[in-house]
Amino acid sequence: MQxxxxxxxxxxxxxxxxxxxxxxxxxxxxxxxxxxxxKHGTIPVEALLDGAxxxxxxxxxxxxxxxxxxxxxxxxxxxxxxxxxxxxxxxRRVTGLKMEKHIQMPGGTFAPRTIxxx
Length: 118
Hints:
Layout: H1 20-34, E1 53-57, E2 63-67, E3 72-79, E4 94-100, E5 111-117
Antiparallel strand pairs: 1-2, 1-5, 2-3, 3-4
């Protein structure tokens, strides 16, 4: 009696299908191979992909979008400081788009650790 061949498939179309997530992971792995993370686990500037979201450590937030033409990260910051002219009223949260440089750059405050999406 012969053993039946077992075909292992992952996902709906199988493991050989091309998806945007696989393409992004492949690009990031190639870049990290040639520009490995530093001793603190930070992804270097050369390995960042324009328009990709990164998780890391930042001054205004843990998630940021890399804007390559501007050379900085875009994060969403929430400010809860009271308005001195309306004190002691209840504080109102103010959100805004903040900008942070890569930790390797002078004055940089965001250290990307992992890529989330593109």
